[in-house]
């Protein structure tokens, strides 16, 4: 699993990030009220010395929320399946829902490309139109910014399967030597 | 999440206490919209006691910020720290939001 700068959401059914070998697994009903609880059940298995563990929890929560809300439309009959593996140096997550898949992926990448250009040119006035992505299914409570942060956070890759209802991601943490984090 | 309002001159400081997540971030949006109806023009949002924010929380801040900017009113967000700062940095919005380190600095920005 090579580390590379992620600038857009990719679709790659054959990505090694979909390898579930030796990963733990849980599945949940699509209950919006319990998203943070489900996330906690997963995040609490991570080593406590992981850097910024509450940030990890938040990032996992966003992906589970997308699966529950946008994938399964909060249909309690539909399940969200999560595979996960943690060490002090990595977090590897796969989240699958039973929905039709992320149809707006290309639209999102185009939107994010424009957003990144505006950020690079520090054009904050025009950026105002590109701070929140409104997909076709978005409602007023959607922040529209979760995937921007996800692409930055999951520095080992963030990739969808062909059907786009399953997303795999990897975070590499800095190596720790004698209790001091060392950026690689 | 608990919201408290205090007044300093013409400035209204909203102290946010707790987590700004998918279940409660709409409350801050609603409060600011009510204050706008009551003709409040200067807002300071104090995040000193917020240790957790998610995309809904960031979305609420974006909505508030864009609404206030469109109305040519004043807003400063202050005391952003820890993982809240990290999440805003990940979304690369530190340059978009009007930010001050402290309430005092926010008050000075209001006068500028």
Outline of chain B: globular
Query: Could you name the ranges of chain B where pLDDT drops below 50 across 5 or more consecutive residues?
Result: none
Radius of gyration of chain B: 13 Å
Going by helix content, strand content and strand pairing, the class of chain B is alpha/beta
Helix and strand element order of chain A: EEHHEEHHHEEEE
Sheet with the most strands, sense and barrel status of chain B: 5 strands, mixed
Helix content of chain A: 25-40%
Name the CATH architecture of the domain at 10-101 and 146-175 in chain A. 2-Layer Sandwich
**Strand line-up across the major sheet of chain A:** 1-5-6-4-3-2
Per DSSP E runs of 2 or more residues, the count of β-strands of chain A stands at 8
| Strand portion of chain B | 25-35%
Layout of helices and strands:
The complex is a heterodimer of chains A (184) and B (112).
Chain A (H helix, E strand, L loop, with lengths): L9 E2 L12 E6 L5 H9 L9 H19 L7 E9 L2 E7 L8 H16 L3 H4 L18 H8 L3 E4 L5 E7 L2 E3 L2 E3 L2
Parallel strand pairs in A: 1-5
Antiparallel strand pairs in A: 2-3, 3-4, 4-6, 5-6, 7-8
Helix pairs in contact in A: 1-2
Chain B lengths: L1 E7 L2 E10 L4 H13 L4 E12 L1 H16 L3 E5 L3 H9 L8 E2 L2 H9 L1
Parallel strand pairs in B: 2-3, 3-4, 4-5
Antiparallel strand pairs in B: 1-2
Helix pairs in contact in B: 1-2
């Amino acid at each position: 699993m090579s580390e590379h700068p992620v600038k857009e959401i990719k679709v790659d059914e054959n990505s090694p990030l979909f390898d579930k070998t030796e990963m733990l697994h849980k599945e949940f009903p699509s209950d919006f009220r319990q998203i943070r609880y489900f996330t906690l059940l997963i995040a609490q298995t991570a080593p406590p010395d992981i850097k910024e563990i509450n940030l990890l929890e938040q990032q996992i929560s966003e992906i589970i929320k997308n699966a529950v809300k946008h994938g399964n439309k909060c249909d309690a009959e539909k399940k969200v399946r999560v595979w996960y593996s943690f060490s002090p140096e990595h977090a590897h997550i796969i989240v699958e829902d039973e929905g039709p898949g992320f149809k707006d992926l290309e639209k999102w990448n185009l939107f994010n490309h424009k957003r990144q250009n505006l950020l690079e040119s520090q054009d904050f006035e025009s950026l105002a139109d590109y701070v929140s992505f409104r997909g076709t299914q978005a409602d007023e409570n959607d922040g529209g910014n979760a995937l921007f942060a996800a692409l930055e956070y999951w520095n080992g890759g963030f990739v969808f399967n062909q059907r786009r209802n399953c997303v795999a991601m990897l975070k590499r943490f800095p190596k720790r030597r004698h209790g001091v984090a060392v950026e690689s | 999440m608990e919201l408290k309002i205090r007044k300093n001159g013409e400035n209204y400081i909203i102290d946010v206490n707790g987590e700004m997540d998918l279940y409660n971030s709409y409350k801050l949006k609603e409060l600011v919209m009510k204050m706008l109806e009551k003709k409040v023009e200067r807002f300071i949002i104090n995040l000193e006691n917020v240790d957790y924010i998610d995309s809904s929380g960031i979305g609420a801040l974006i909505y508030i910020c864009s609404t206030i900017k469109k109305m040519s009113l004043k807003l400063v967000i202050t005391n952003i720290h820890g993982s809240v700062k990290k999440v805003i940095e990940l979304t690369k919005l530190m340059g978009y939001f009007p930010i001050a380190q402290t309430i005092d600095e926010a008050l000075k920005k209001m006068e500028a």
